[in-house]
Amino acid sequence: GESVGLHLPTLSVQEGDNSIINCAYSNSASDYFIWYKQESGKGPQFIIDIRSNMDKRQGQRVTVLLNKTVKHLSLQIAATQPGDSAVYFCAENSGPGGTSYGKLTFGQGTILTVHP
Amino acid sequence: DTGVSQDPRHKITKRGQNVTFRCDPISEHNRLYWYRQTLGQGPEFLTYFQNEAQLEKSRLLSDRFSAERPKGSFSTLEIQRTEQGDSAMYLCASSPGVGGDRLKGTEAFFGQGTRLTVV
After folding, report:
1. How many alpha carbons fall within 13 Å on the CB side of residue B35?
2. A104 closest CB neighbour out of B41, B45, B113
3. In the prediction, which pLDDT does B79 show?
């Protein structure tokens, strides 16, 4: 099934804190996952991705963790800054047999607010 | 600008009118996607092109919706006889497709979207 929600979870942190945003995905056959950041009035911006044969991937200030056993994905942002304030979406590749990469099913977003 | 470009950014139309949106993908990306996003929700997949071929369409894409990518470059999304329920952000994304660094080839990059308001 797809994750939908009219009331997005929220996370408020202080500048400099580490943030952890969680996501549960539904399709055990998904083999590719992406985190997107979306600011008001803009399109989703790619942050980091991970394939199902990995359990951790690091970028600049961001780390994605994948737990396939419980179908859980998390995004860790180190030293969160006010510019990180946005809605964060996880997305899973939902194409059959890996032929439709880019056809994504988005999870429920999380609103991150970073206070100076 | 080398990103995905969408035009117009905003469109207000009266119910029953037809509207057309344009998407210019990142150069040489052979995969192009259309998504729709309503307030408070994540984007929902509408349709997908590999070059000029439309390979997949969501059940969300009613017969009032049609998408084309005639030369495998830019794409258009047309909505006929618009309804108030069509009000949403229409997002276009592109990806290079599989090849080379497989992980990078699957990244989908989104445009800024076209905000449609049907009054």
Report:
1. 27
2. B45
3. 97
Residue contact A104–B56, C-beta within 8 A? no
DSSP for A34-91 reads EEEEE-TTS--EEEEEEETT-SEEE-SSEEEEEETTTTEEEEEESS--GGG-EEEEEE
Residue A10 · residue A86 · CB < 8 Å: no
Q: What is the pLDDT of residue B55?
A: 87
Q: Does residue A64 carry a pLDDT above 70?
A: yes
- Tokens at B106, concatenated: 């699957």
Q: Residue B36: its pLDDT value, please? A: 96
B68 strand-pairing partners = B76
Q: Which amino acid, residue B34? A: W
Minimal Cβ distance to B43: which of A6, A8, A106: A106
Quickly tell me which residue has 């369409």 as its tokens.
B57
Chain A: closest CA distance from residue B99 (Å): 12
Closest CA to B33 of B47, B18, B54, B21: B47
Q: Using alpha carbons, select from A50, A46, A69, A68 the residue that is nearest to residue A58.
A: A50
